[in-house]
Amino acid sequence: MIRPTPAIEAIPQTTPFIGPEQLMRETHQLELVRLGANESAFGPSPKAVAAMTQELPRLSWYGDPESLDLRDALAEKHGCKPSQIVVGSGIDDIMGLAVRAFVAPGGVALATTGTYPTFAYHVAGYGARLLEVPYCPDGTPDCDALLDVARNAMPSIVYLANPDNPSGRFISRREIESFYEALPRDTLLLLDEAYADFVDEGELLPASFEDRLIRLRTFSKAYGMAGARIGYALSTQRNVSTFQKIRLHYGINRNAQVGALASLRDAEFRAYVVAETARAREAYYELATELGRPYIESQTNFVCIGMETADRAARVMNELLRRGVWIRKPGAPPLDSYVRVSAGTPDMREAFARALRAVLAEVAV
Question: Which of 20, 104, 235, 253 is most buried when burial is the number of CB atoms within 10 A of its CB?
Answer without folding.
Answer: 235
